[in-house]
Write a structure and sequence with these properties.
Radius of gyration: 23 Å
Low-confidence stretches: 409-419
CATH topology of the largest domain: Aspartate Aminotransferase, domain 2
Number of helices: 14
Strand order of the largest sheet: 4-10-9-8-7-5-6
Helix content: 25-40%
Number of domains: 2
CATH architecture of the largest domain: 3-Layer(aba) Sandwich
CATH superfamily of the largest domain: Type I PLP-dependent aspartate aminotransferase-like (Major domain)
Oligomer: single chain
Bound molecules: 4'-deoxy-4'-aminopyridoxal-5'-phosphate
Largest sheet: 7 strands, mixed
Length: 466
């Protein structure tokens, strides 16, 4: 923060931040907590947002900070005016906040992207020549798919954290001596099972075999403190919209070398330091070697500011307290589901695995889309059904499970492919106890008594029949 902009920044941002008090013993205040939705059976009910793993509601504090900053908004890295300079300072300060939140090394770069998907695609474009990629089949598609022409080794789903490490060790050891660089991409917490992966051990295995590792923290960072230094990962990626800051920004943070040597992710203004016509009529470009190299174009200042606000708010609330509270919610949901014999929770690592508030399950005799539609229409509960952009994992977990599709018909299956879906309930720092209590009661009632309403299939999904 320059002396020039210091006073206004203090006025616009520090005071506004104090407007909402935050304590993690209670749910953190989020937007939408007073929204009511209609029930097909009549009346209205407070909406229970239990789909945090897709997108979490905005923290009230984030919203307040963004609203307080909005009048001061200006272009960054280009304007001579006061608000441009202020915005530039806040933008760069947000970078430092995110670096602190992730406990980055001082040499790391924090690059602002659109999302985790964008971050991993950026890293994929920065792989050195002949880099091999190792990724478990259990990953989200954002980690499975972006690797372009690189040779990718897909590792089988492990059934314990120790097996994950052993599987990776074996695969890396199989490389020829002197083979080129390698990158391991691993999730911190599964978006299907919520299970936390042994990231530190996987990082140690990767490094022992001369490979690097990127952590997909899309589901971990909103629930747990992530320390790049302690986990010893080379990069970490996460999304603002899962971290209570739904303004279209994401983060890739980590080692600068591969990123500096790669072509800019997008070519254009902001990424280029110097552009000049050549005598032969072409153009010479000197690209930045800082984070700006991969941030061409006008950046999403509000989105970046919102992420920094979320990082500050979660840190202030305290991850120890947040984790303890979330664990109570997890225990309530898992115990409630375990009480219903028709319900099977999907898990790779078993009951004792540490996990975040993401739980997927199937219900005997129910089409998952039908079940999710009834939770919404009859109880005002928003969950997700499907394969959660982790098709290989969900198919592995559903395995030979036979499930009666029930009404509304399962989506069409490709030949030889099962068409079963799962239901996912997910929650976090803004979830009140009442939401998970209502969810557990709804599951019990639906299984015991059936749906109270008729549903029909529309565009492959179950919807209430009017
Ligand atoms: N990784 C994981 C584990 C995820 O859960 C998700 C989102 N569901 C992503 C990556 C992709 O995140 P985004 O859609 O924000 O790019």
């Amino acid at each position: 923060m320059s002396a020039y902009t210091d006073t206004a920044a203090t006025a616009c941002c520090t005071e506004a931040t104090a407007a909402t008090s935050v304590t993690a013993a209670e749910p953190l205040p989020v937007l939408g907590r007073d929204v009511t939705v209609p029930l097909v059976t009549g009346g209205e009910v407070a909406y229970a947002a239990l789909d945090y793993a897709a997108s979490a509601p905005a923290l009230q504090r984030v919203w307040d900070d963004v609203a307080a900053y909005a009048p001061y908004y200006g272009s960054v890295h280009r304007g001579a005016g006061y608000l441009s300079q202020l915005s530039t300072d806040l933008f760069e300060q947000s970078r430092a906040t995110v670096a602190g939140f992730l406990d980055c090394r001082s040499s790391d770069q924090v690059i602002f992207t659109r999302s985790t998907t964008d971050s991993l695609n950026l890293l994929a474009r920065a792989l050195p020549a002949d880099c091999r990629v190792f990724v478990f089949e259990t990953e989200h598609h954002a980690s499975l798919l972006p690797w372009g022409d690189a040779q990718v080794t897909y590792l089988d789903a492990p059934r314990t954290p120790a097996e994950a490490v052993a599987t990776l060790e074996r695969a890396l050891a199989d490389r020829e001596p002197g083979e080129g660089p390698a990158l391991v991409c691993v999730t911190g917490a599964s978006n299907v099972t919520g299970e936390i992966w042994p990231v530190k051990e996987l990082a140690a295995a990767a490094h022992a075999h001369g490979a690097r590792i990127v952590l997909d923290a899309a589901q971990l960072a909103p629930h747990h403190a992530v320390s790049v230094q302690d986990l010893d990962v080379d990069w970490v990626a996460f999304s603002g919209h899962k971290l209570y800051a739904p303004f279209g920004s994401g983060v890739l943070a980590g080692r600068a070398d591969w990123l500096q040597q790669a072509d800019p992710y997008l070519a254009g203004g902001g990424a280029s330091r110097k552009v000049a016509r050549r005598e032969d009529g072409g153009v010479d470009v000197e690209w930045h070697t800082t984070a700006a190299r991969h941030e061409a174009g006008s950046p999403n200042v509000i989105g970046v500011y919102a992420i920094a606000s979320a990082c500050r708010t979660l840190t202030e609330a305290g991850f120890d307290t947040l984790v303890a509270r979330e664990q109570q919610l997890i225990d309530t949901v898992r115990a409630g589901l375990a009480d219903v014999p028709e319900v099977r929770i999907l898990s790779l690592f078993g009951d004792d695995a540490p996990r975040v508030g993401v739980i997927s399950f199937v219900v005997d005799g129910w089409n998952s889309s039908h079940f999710a539609a009834a939770l919404s229409a009859e109880y005002g509960i928003g969950v997700r059904d499907g394969l959660f952009c982790a098709h290989p994992l969900v198919r592995t977990l559903l395995g030979g499970e036979s499930q009666e599709p029930g009404e509304c018909g399962a989506p069409e299956a490709a030949p030889g492919e099962r068409s079963l879906n799962a239901i996912r309930v997910s929650f976090g720092a803004g979830t009140p106890d009442e939401h998970v209590d209502r969810f557990v009661r709804a599951v019990r009632e639906l299984v015991a008594d059936g749906a109270k309403w008729q549903y029909r299939t529309e565009d492959g999904r179950c919807v209430p029949a009017v």
